[in-house]
Amino acid sequence: MFARWGSEPVLNRRQFSRIMSPPMKILLHHPAREAALKGPKKVLQVLRELEILPDTVLVIRGEELIAEDEVVNDSDTIEVRPVISGG
To answer: What domain range is 66 assigned to?
Structure first.
């Protein structure tokens, strides 16, 4: 995974940027709170790590609803909102 330069491991640019980039910001509602996870990850992976059932929420990036198979990155802020239905 890492190249070696003498006895010290050397990171390539991609490895360095993944380690140093801030994690994606996740805004959760009901109750309101924030979480952070390192990406890139599919939305379904994010929900599993947060122990949220996918069928119970909508995931929004910016003003766009995103699907479970879409990838979110460290630079993204996503909102996880509960699905509310009524009669």
So the answer is: 23-82
pTM over 0.90: no
3-state secondary structure the chain: CCEEECCEEECCHHHHHHHHCCCEEEEECCCCEEEEECCCEEHHHHHHHCCCCHHHEEEEECCEEECCCCEECCCCEEEEEECCCCC
Output the tens digit of pLDDT for each of the chain's 87 residues. 545 555 666 767 666 555 567 788 998 888 899 999 998 999 999 999 999 999 999 999 999 999 999 999 999 999 999 998 886
Q: What domain count does the chain have?
A: 1
